[in-house]
Amino acid sequence: MCGRYVIEGTTELSERFQLRHVPADLFPEPATYNAAPTQILPVIVEDDAGERVVLPMQWGLIPRWRPADGKRSLAPINARAETILEKPMFRGLLRSKRCIIPASGFYEWRKIDGRKQPYYITSDDGGLWGLAGLYDVTHDEGNRAAGSFSIITVGANELVAPLHERMPAILNREHEEEWISRDVTDPLQVERLLHSYPEAEMELYPVGSAVNNTRHNGPELIARVTIAAMPEAESRSLG
After folding, report:
1. What are the helix and strand counts (H, E) for the chain?
2. Cβ(192)–Cβ(179) under 8 Å?
3. Active centre residues (catalytic)
4. What letter does residue 163 receive in the DSSP assignment?
5. Shortest CA distance to 41 belongs to which of 173, 168, 131, 160?
6. pLDDT on residue 1
7. What is the CATH architecture assignment of 5-106+126-201?
């Protein structure tokens, strides 16, 4: 799954994702090192004119059929690629409301000696990834979000699998244009773009437990730490 991620360098979004304009006041913080559900985060969509734009959206897809009595309904943060066409909440969005979530990396946890040890998974070249997502214009009342979104997940590759069986669907750069295009409406055409990212192009290493608290946010969260008393085989596979 993907329940926490990092977005560094929001000022770099324009060049990386071919955005014509990124409002300077859209995201006051230049980086988010502990992006978590319910937060408002940058999401890239294609507008009616065929231009890529970045919008502030709430993480956790809010369905249009939420209860009329004001009670909060289910707001999934992830959508499984394998069943995306079976779920009414996601099936229609796959046709026309696909988005890209910029991310520098994501966190995952593994239980070691009775405690949950966090790891950071990032690109081996330090570049920004584009995570595949679905969005809608629904959002909670009273916030500045333009909508809400969910990150699509796939089966984990060999690097991530020791931590979790799922990982976010990271788009190949050459597939991003096809994924986000509103001219592409065939779900089967875009479904084939969802697959596990090559482990050879990723880096994984342990980080400190401060990331466990969503109130913490700073570059120290992605600093590498040393884990004592780890079996040699695990040390080789998990950094």
Report:
1. 5, 12
2. no
3. 2, 108
4. T
5. 131
6. 66
7. Alpha-Beta Complex (3.90)
Q: State the DSSP string of 83-97.
A: GTTT-HHHHHHHHH-
Torsion, CA 48, CA 52, CA 54, CA 60, rounded to 10: 70
CA dist 4 and 107 (Å) reads 6
114 CB-near residues (< 8 Å, 6+ apart): none
Secondary structure class of 5 (helix, strand, coil)? strand
Q: Count CA atoms within 13 Å of residue 178 on its CB side.
A: 14
Helix, strand or coil, per DSSP, at residue 127: coil
Q: Look at residue 16 and tell me whether its pLDDT is greater than 70.
A: yes
Task: Give dist(CA 31, CA 231) in Å, integer.
Answer: 34
Q: Is the model's pTM score more than 0.70?
A: yes
User: Which amino acid is located at 87 in the chain?
Assistant: K
Enumerate residues 6+ apart whose C-beta is below 8 A from 174.
Answer: none
